[in-house]
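Renewal narrative, Specific Aim 1. Our central claim is that a sequence can be written position by position from structural information alone. The example that follows is taken directly from our test logs and has not been curated for this report. It begins with the structure tokens describing the chain, in the order in which they were read.
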């Protein structure tokens, strides 16, 4: 009987320490190098383990909850955002974060899936706020410079504006995970002769430029948080007519003024956005935010492609016309040079032929003058050599002058003394 009891105890202990099933009934648990663990007892946190190893707990009572300690990624859904010029761009972004306080993370976000959803919305909100303050070139990270390319296209120079945008987005996301964003609708009061006015805000503003940077050291937030998000636009000066000029932390009041040449009507509505301290931070640290793609919406893509094709056709037509013009210039120049060369050749040829003929006539004249009879005899012999060797029958009178040297020896020759 005692052996059975001892065996039963051994089996129970073995099950407690070695059972491969649920970790709740185990007395030992393993913390991997990529994990951080919270041990709870009846819902209350008893310990936090961030160092890898094997640890003990109370079986059946303590529960082990694991969270990843590596850098995690959030892929925010692509969404159309208006830029400074009110033109929509589809921004596809992602963020990376790390869980630095698993207890707070479990209390506020509970799971990584919930964190992905909540933080995706926060990243989108911060990105939308920054995109709305920049034009397309700043978002892309480039700026036009004077001049054009050989194709007639504007010259573009790369800038660091994209990096500045992302740094501002990271600051905005860090602000939002430690603070709550609040919007408040306000109206323009009757100012009389005044040019500025102040309005007390509903809740204490967190870390405004002119306010409480040192009053909340635990958050470490340094972003500017009082902004006008909507309001009257008189059209004289681009943008919302109402602007923030200051903040009084003692009264939690924001100071406002109007843009130059703008005079909004009394009672005009405008909306401000600011941040208040979050009661329960998320327990995470945002490592980075990046933009994967900034593109035009699908609705305007065909129009953009049409413009691109038209631009390329314009460039191609320009190249063709310039090529045709250059072709005509080259052909005209070649034809001109050809005519000049042929004319000069004809001129030189005619001159040389004339000079040769004149020289030949002079030589013949000189020879004729020296011995006319011998010249006549020589020419006759040349004529005999030509026609007497031919297979041609020629009928001539016997009295022809050409035969006078064939009539007999010495006939036709004068006696030379």
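The sequence written for that structure reads:
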């Amino acid at each position: 009987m005692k052996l059975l009891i001892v065996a039963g105890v051994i089996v129970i202990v073995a099950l407690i320490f070695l059972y491969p099933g649920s970790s709740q009934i185990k007395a030992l648990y393993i913390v991997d190098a990529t994990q951080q663990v919270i041990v709870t007892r009846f819902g209350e946190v008893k310990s936090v383990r961030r160092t890898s190893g094997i640890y003990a707990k109370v079986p059946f009572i303590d529960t082990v909850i694991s969270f990843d300690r590596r850098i995690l990624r959030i892929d925010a859904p692509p969404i159309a955002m208006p830029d400074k010029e009110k033109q929509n761009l589809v921004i596809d972004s992602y963020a990376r974060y790390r869980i630095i306080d698993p207890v707070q993370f479990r209390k506020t976000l509970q799971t990584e899936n919930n964190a992905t959803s909540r933080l995706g919305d926060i990243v989108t909100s911060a990105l939308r706020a920054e995109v709305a303050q920049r034009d397309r070139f700043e978002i892309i990270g480039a700026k036009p410079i004077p001049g054009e390319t050989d194709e007639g296209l504007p010259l573009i120079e790369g800038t660091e504006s994209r990096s500045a945008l992302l740094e501002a987005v990271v600051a905005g996301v860090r602000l939002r995970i430690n603070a709550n964003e609040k919007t408040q609708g306000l109206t323009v009061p009757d100012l009389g002769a005044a040019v500025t006015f102040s309005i007390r805000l509903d809740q204490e503003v967190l870390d405004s430029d002119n306010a409480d940077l040192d009053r909340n050291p635990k958050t470490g937030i340094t972003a500017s948080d009082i902004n006008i998000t909507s309001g009257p636009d008189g059209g004289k000066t681009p943008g919302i007519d109402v602007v923030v000029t200051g903040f009084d932390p003692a009264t939690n009041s924001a100071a406002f003024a109007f843009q130059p040449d703008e005079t909004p009507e009394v009672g005009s509505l405008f909306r401000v956005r600011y941040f208040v301290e979050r009661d329960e931070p998320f327990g995470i640290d945002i490592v980075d935010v990046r933009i994967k793609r900034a593109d035009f919406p699908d609705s305007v893509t065909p129009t953009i492609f049409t413009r691109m094709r038209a631009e390329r056709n314009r460039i191609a037509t320009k190249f063709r016309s310039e090529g045709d013009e250059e072709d005509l210039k080259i052909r005209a120049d070649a034809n001109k040079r050809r005519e000049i060369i042929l004319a000069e050749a004809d001129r030189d040829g005619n001159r040389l032929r004339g000079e040769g003929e004149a020289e030949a006539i002079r030589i013949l004249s000189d020879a004729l003058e020296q011995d006319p009879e011998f010249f006549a005899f020589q020419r006759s012999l040349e004529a005999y050599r030509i026609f007497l060797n031919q297979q041609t029958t020629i009928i001539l009178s016997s009295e022809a002058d050409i035969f006078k040297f064939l009539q007999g020896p010495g006939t036709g020759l004068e006696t030379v003394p």
